[in-house]
Design goal:
Keywords: Signal. This is Purple acid phosphatase N-terminal domain-containing protein. The chain is 7% helix and 31% strand. It has 269 residues and is mainly beta. It is flat. The structure holds 2-acetamido-2-deoxy-beta-D-glucopyranose (3 copies) and fe (ii) ion.
Length: 269
């Protein structure tokens, strides 16, 4: 029985969908594991018809616009910590600023709190984390400076393996908190216990094709997504928001290789 999986490979700044690889079923007719191997590595040629010109989403696309008000959490993400019993919840509050008269936000002005539990009706546990901001400052005439929203990180500990947890994050004292979201913890790691489906993806960009890539990925129900890098390509932009497929070709005269940091914020939305 063959199992189809989608392989995604990025080449330079263009995301390329390489094709469908048929993986032969293992001895039990299911998905082969490393325990069934070792297998001969299979290389699949790049299908050139997938080498397109990926166009960046513009600032006006609804997918990259800020939908929250005030200090409501946005750009919420869950990342794996060192073991199954711990994950990081991260989010942003407040608006970035870019321009001449930027005033950094005070990260202490908004708390970093996650309420969580095994039932969405009983978020009985609480974890508190920390927050920070960062600035991108250019000492050159004509370049704009950037200061980020407040970035929050909270580590949840003592979680059970292979278990759904529900959570909401924010600062309940303001009060500004997120909707309730959920995640599933990893299994206890051993030679016969590991996440069954791991998606590996990179060079995602923030293009009209990124959404379809993520949809493909999600329709394969991965237990874990490994994002190997290259996300927004903010470095293909000037600080005034003008972008190009090839920075050095288009902007040979800039005093420094600048970036347009708001594209980082867009990516998290
Ligand atoms: C950006 O920050 C740098 C370093 O503080 C400063 O020299 C520069 O004048 C600032 N630029 C603007 C446009 O405010
Ligand atoms: C990327 O998106 C564009 C615009 O939506 C579309 O025309 C093109 O077929 C997509 N490319 C791939 C490889 O899916
Ligand atoms: C940004 O700067 C570049 C280079 O100076 C210029 O060609 C472009 O018109 C500017 N774009 C905007 C929106 O100001
Ligand atoms: Fe890349």
């Amino acid at each position: 029985m063959g199992v189809q999986s989608v392989v995604l490979i990025g080449l330079s700044s263009v995301l390329v969908l390489v094709g469908l690889v048929v993986v032969q079923g293992g001895v039990h007719g299911g998905i082969p594991t490393t325990l069934d191997g070792p297998f001969e590595p299979v290389t699949v040629d790049v299908d050139d018809k997938f080498r397109g010109h990926a166009i960046d989403l513009p600032d006006t696309d609804p997918r990259v616009q800020r939908k929250v008000n005030g200090f409501e959490p946005e750009q919420i993400s869950v990342s794996l910590s060192s073991t199954y019993d711990s994950v990081w919840i991260s989010w942003i509050t407040g608006e970035f600023q870019i321009g001449d008269n930027i005033k950094p936000l005070d990260p202490k002005s908004v708390k970093s709190v996650v309420r969580y539990g095994k039932s969405r009706f009983s978020l009985s546990r609480k974890a508190v984390g920390y927050s920070l901001i960062y600035n991108q400052l250019y000492p050159f005439e004509g370049l704009k400076n950037y200061t980020s929203g407040i970035i929050h990180h909270v580590r949840l500990r003592g979680l059970k393996p292979d278990t759904f947890y529900y959570y909401r994050c924010g600062d309940p004292s303001i009060p500004v908190t997120s909707k309730i979201y959920y995640f599933k913890t990893m299994p206890i790691s051993s030679p016969r216990s590991y996440p069954n489906r791991i998606a590996v993806v990179g060079d995602l960009g923030l293009t009209y094709n990124t959404t379809s890539t993520i949809s493909h990925l999600m329709s394969n129900y991965p237990d874990l997504v490994l994002l190997v890098g290259d996300v927004t390509y903010a470095n293909l932009y000037l600080t005034n928001g003008t972008g190009s497929d090839c920075y050095s070709c288009s902007f040979a005269q800039t005093p420094i290789h600048e970036t347009y940091q708001p594209r980082w914020d867009y990516w998290g939305r």
